Amino acid sequence: MEFSQILVFLALMTACLTLLVWIFCLLGYFLWPSLLVEIFQRWNMYRAGFTPKTIDVGDFQFCYMERGLPSDTNQTIVLIHGFAASKDAWCYMSHALPKTEHIIALDLPGHGKSTRKHDGDHTIPTQVAKLHQFVHAIGLHQRKFHLAGISMGGHIVGVYASRHPSNLSSVIMMCPAGIDAPHLSEFLEDVLHKGERNYLIPETTEDFLTMWKKVVHRYIPLPYFAARLFTEVRKPFNEFYKKVLLDITHPDHRFLLQNVLEDITVPALVLWGENDKIIHVSSVNVMKEKLKNSQVHILDRCGHALSLERPWKTAKLMMEFISSCN
């Protein structure tokens, strides 16, 4: 076969493969949105160097991802996502974290691929207990680690630090819930005072796009087809998320973090976006007053999604703080 014929053959093969990929994507878009999202998340995970893992405790399965291994020369950092998110939310920021560190990101109960029980208890104390169960299940309690969480995850890790300080080298809370902020956020104004639908549990693609605009400060364009995919994947679990939201805002636990701030004895880092529309940044004033050993940084040009909007700055502040704890 002549060289020109080989080139034509390769060009035809490339065109056919491209056509097949487009056909698969179109079919997936309309018929199997969850499959396309799963492929995207797996690609993100492997690109960030993580390996997906599971561990069973009784009838409950924890799903998590791990990068690196614990050793005498590195540190373990455990990452806890926020409400209605999953461990995959950390993939983007993880590129800014040193490859030398041992990093674990967990799917909270009912989120991501961890066991989902619609009639379960998802109050903050119960989620803290589940996190402690996971820590023991994979042997993390055998050496101290750094624990970081965002939003609902920030609430959980803060309460965990107040109850299990012997396990921790430090705790990092990013725009955590659980604080009675002096000022209402735009989200609470919209839902409580204006009677708008809770866009944190989107029912339509338009709801998802609204949520996207609210959680970030500098708008990051999101194609409509991508918003539709994520909406379709989340929608079957909306009733579950509504139950979780009711549990974590229960009057007995809604401001649990604020009530235990003075019990946090390990070094603490508080990070907040200056333009957070979901949880008002004025919460930092409450935290600074009650935390004994803390650093506070407010990131400019940033909303609620610190790990997405300012991943490099967030990672830099985290690692500087972690280094100062050694």
Automatic annotation (TrEMBL):
One of its GO terms (cellular component) is lysosomal membrane. Coiled coil: none annotated. The keyword Membrane applies. The chain crosses the membrane at residues 6-32. Its main location: membrane. The keyword Hydrolase does not apply. Pfam families: Abhydrolase_1. It is found in: Late endosome membrane; Lysosome membrane; Mitochondrion membrane. It is an enzyme of class 3 (hydrolase). Its EC number is 3.1.1.23. GO terms for molecular function: monoacylglycerol lipase activity. Residues 76-311 form the AB hydrolase-1 domain. It catalyses: Hydrolyzes glycerol monoesters of long-chain fatty acids; 1-dodecanoylglycerol + H2O = dodecanoate + glycerol + H(+). InterPro entries: AB_hydrolase_1, AB_hydrolase_fold, AB_hydrolase_sf. It is a single-pass type II membrane protein. One of its GO terms (biological process) is acylglycerol catabolic process. This is acylglycerol lipase.
